[in-house]
Amino acid sequence: MKIKRIVGLAAVAALALAACSDTGGGSGDAETTEGGTSQGIVTAWGSEPQNPLIPTNTNEVGGGKILDLMFSGLVHYEADGKAVNEVAESIETEDAQTFTITLKEGWTFSNGEPVTSSSFVDAWNYGAKLSNEQLSSYFFEPIEGFSYDVDSDLTGLKVVDDTTFTVTLTQPESDFPLRLGYSAFYPLPESAFADMDAFGESPVGNGLYKLDGEGAWEHNVQASLVPNPDYAGDRTVANGGVVVKFYETLDGAYNDLLAGQLDVLDQIPDSAFGTYESELGDRAVNQPAAVFQSFTIPQNLAHFSGEEGKLRRQAISLAINRAEVTEAIFQGTRTPASDFTSPVIDGWSDSVTGSEVLEYDPEEAKKLWAEADAIAPFSGTFTIGYNTDGGHQAWVDAVTNGLRNTLGISAEGNPFPSFKDLRTEVTARTITGAFRSGWQADYPGLYNFLGPLYGTGAGSNDGDYSSAAVDTLLAEGAAAGSIEEANEKFVKVQEVLFTDLPAIPLWYANATGGSADTVSNVTFGWNSVPLLNEVTKN
Amino acid sequence: MAWYIGRRLVQTIPVFLGATLLIYAMVFALPGDPVAALGGDRGLSPALVERIRESFNLDKPFLVQYLLYLKGVVTFDFGTTFSGRSVRDVIGEALPTTFMLAFMALVFEAVLGVAAGLVAGLRKGKAFDATVLIVSLFVIAVPTFVIGFVLQFTVGVKWGVLPPTVGSDVSVRTLLLPAMVLGAVSLAYVLRLTRTSVAENLTADYVRTATAKGLSRPRVVTVHVLRNSLIPVVTFLGADLGALMGGAIITEGIFNINGVGGTLYRAILQGQSSTVVSLTTVLVVIYIAANLLVDVLYAALDPRIRYA
Fold first, then answer.
1. Contact state of A248 with B47 under an 8 Å Cβ cutoff
2. Given CB atoms, is A538 within the 8 Å cutoff of chain B?
3. Which one of A136, A151, A251, A263 would you mutate to disrupt binding with B, by most B Cβ within 10 Å of its Cβ?
4. Cα gap B276→B73, rounded to integer Å
5. Helix H segments across A166-305?
């Protein structure tokens, strides 16, 4: 997951984000007909990486965008989220627990070093080791030998020869190969380990682009990338380079886009939601993204556990007019949720049993709330905690207003000045009341939206939800032989979630963006990041 | 005079210590754990949080943290940011740009403000005076970000005369628009100060004497009226330089300038005390220097003022 930095004078916002993007090899971009390549430099919107550019230490979009252009992993994700082998020749397993990975020949880093099994194994070991303090270390948790508490080697990784290595997990996880396109799993050249600080300042990768010499990363200003002649994969680079420009506010970036000073923008500022589609015409992008937004009601909150809690949770969900809020407040840049995942993920369904609870039905809501009151009368105020630096106030106010009017209870937002203040209370479990939550996929799989959030004791299960049925189904899905079989289980998980409602699903964020008339062939990938290597300069 | 300047410089030491201690305490008192935010919604494992807190001395008591910071400052080591960059580098990148921006804004407001204020003061009650007063009132009343966005959109996007944002291209041309926005409100104040001061001094005894001696009108106006009228204006400009440097957050945000304001804003949100304290301390020092310069300038402007 990557932290999404919502710029504007806002800092780190909430979501987690994925890596990767790049390419699609022509699939799914029906309306882009102009092909060919150009030597022009494409300028793209970005934000200053929050951490050194080390794959295992990058967990936010600013750095992720640059790394994804500079590195190629074992697999990469096409525009529609399909994972295809890139550096990997094959990833094989019998039991979804031990994987044999063979690499293609002929891959090198841009400094000439060959990409071998050790490039991956050493990089993953580095990323997992506690004393290296890598922010994405949890990605290696499933691998045998991983420890959160002490320095330990990933004993589950074994180099067989230069192009083969095996991975042993502590338990079966059928979607493990799907995760390998995420930036934490990128390989590192041997030279990196000699001086990781220097490497983080000017990384050397095996991807589509490389940094344009020393000092190509001008902090807080921009990063200049040029095509990497040593790139050995199948994706094409259709431009002479990419300059990722860092912006403090989205408004400034949007004005630059209108003035032709910026070619591609992947986030439209709130202030332009109403006008950008007319201002940009067919160069505007508004498509669902792999971002799920909700608010979590902690299990230990008074009146929200047991049978009474179930009724109240259902009532609250039914009392929210999602269609109206997404239209009035987000002007159609959010899509009302119909499940706990995202429409861009393979296996998504808008008709999971129990999803009727996401419809707006004030009568039913009142009825259920009254039934709950019969068990134990509700008193006090229902609050939704949110951070004021992420543009959440408007919808929180709308939702709590709706709850007040429909259920006749006292409900209000509970603002925290910054994301870190909210996180501190959520992590310490001292927050009293519900709080906003969100998830942006790390990799395009259903499990990623469910396992880390609703499994008992899982890393991001901030509401402390625990259900034996969910745990069993998650484990079964993880051990399933095929993606289809696994997805069936994950749909069943959601059926349980719809009765328990540990979090109230709200909507999916859309990818809103656009491009200037200075470029063509702009396609946005499953993770809402434009496929910059395909963009051509006019 | 040298004695006076020396004494003033020595006075900066307690100011420096007091300012750093106060700011450090304020950042320390900010709610929330800065390390907790590093992991996003996902969160970090407790062991990892512990390690990171340790490496940034965040696990130590307040006074120990502060003294460790001061120890670093003495050796010109201002600490590192969470992204592992030296705070000195971060400041080194942001400060020159902001200084250039603030200086351009200062020149803009001083030249234009004094000129317009002088004309308005000399023609008090006439059409020009009235127009200037109304316009300046308007500028003071409208928030900076409104002026900023309107100018960015009209000049930058609609007319395409100047680039809408600055980014990597820091030059007089790109900074022109932001400097005008940044200096706009102060320009209105400078103008009004000059106008009032000039109008008042026109009726002073020494001006009547100078005119009675047969001096030409231009000489009376520039040497006798203007010079004396500049004292309050210079006081204002000196204090304003500090305000321009630290208060450019909004302007820098709108025009995407990598300067002190944005750096400070991000650092406060992330709870990076070493960056916040170092930057504000630099601003305090600049403020002190600007005020010292103003005091020295008094003596040059008004022969009656002497320092011993």
1. no
2. no
3. A251
4. 13
5. 176-179, 190-194, 196-201, 250-258, 276-280
CA gap A246, A223 in Å, rounded:
8
Long-range contacts of A480-484 (CB under 8 A, 24+ apart): A480/A96, A480/A174, A481/A96, A481/A174, A482/A174, A483/A174, A483/A175, A483/A178, A483/A346, A483/A347, A484/A347
Q: If contacts are CB pairs under 8 Å, which of residues 29-68 in chain A contact chain B?
A: 49-52, 59-60
Query: Residue A249 and residue B253: Cβ atoms within 8 Å?
Result: yes
Residue A421 forms contact with B (CB below 8 Å): yes
**A130 and B270 in contact by Cβ < 8 A?**
no
Closest to A257 measured CA to CA, from A512, A533, A438, A58: A512
Which chain A residue's Cα is nearest to B80?
Answer: A51
Q: Which domain holds residue B199?
A: 93-261+288-305
Chain A CB contacts of B40 below 8 Å: 1-4, 12, 14-16, 59-60
Structure tokens at A196: 């990781």
CB-CB under 8 Å, A14 with B40: yes
Q: How many domains does chain B have?
A: 1
Contact present, B296 and B8 (Cβ < 8 Å): no
* C-alpha to C-alpha distance for B290 and B238, rounded to whole angstroms: 5
Cβ of A9 under 8 Å from any chain B Cβ? yes
Query: Nearest CA of chain A to the CA of B146: how many Å?
Result: 13
* Residues on chain B touching A389 (C-beta within 8 angstroms): 269
Residue B47 C-alpha, separation from nearest chain A C-alpha, in angstroms: 5
Q: Using CA atoms, how far apart are residues B277 and B81, in angstroms rounded to an integer?
A: 12
Tokens 């003022």 belong to B305
CATH number at residue B98: 1.10.3720.10
Q: Is A202 on the interface with B (CB under 8 A)?
A: no
pLDDT tens digit at each of 538 positions of chain A: 444 433 333 332 333 333 333 333 333 333 333 445 678 999 999 988 888 999 999 888 889 999 999 999 999 999 888 899 999 999 999 888 999 999 999 999 999 999 999 999 999 999 999 999 998 898 999 999 999 889 999 999 999 999 999 999 998 888 899 999 999 999 999 999 999 999 999 999 999 999 998 889 999 899 999 999 999 999 999 999 999 999 988 889 999 999 999 999 998 988 888 899 999 999 999 988 899 999 999 999 999 999 999 999 999 999 999 999 999 999 888 999 999 999 999 889 999 999 999 999 999 999 999 999 999 999 899 999 999 877 899 999 999 999 999 999 999 999 998 888 888 889 889 999 999 998 888 889 999 999 989 999 887 899 999 999 999 999 999 888 788 889 999 999 999 999 999 999 999 999 999 999 999 999 999 988 999 999 999 8
Q: Is A163 on the interface with B (CB under 8 A)?
A: no
Considering only CB atoms, which chain A residues are within 8 Å of B38? 59, 135
Does B18 map to a domain? Answer: no
Contact A437 B32 (CB under 8 A): no
Residue B195 lies in a domain: yes
What is the Cα–Cα distance from A455 to A452, expressed in whole angstroms?
6
The pTM of this model reads 0.83
Query: ipTM of this predicted complex?
Result: 0.84
- Inside any domain, residue B60: no
Residue B34 included in any domain? no
Check A420 against B36: CB less than 8 A apart: yes
Determine whether the interchain pair B253/A438 forms a contact, defined as Cβ–Cβ distance below 8 Å.
no
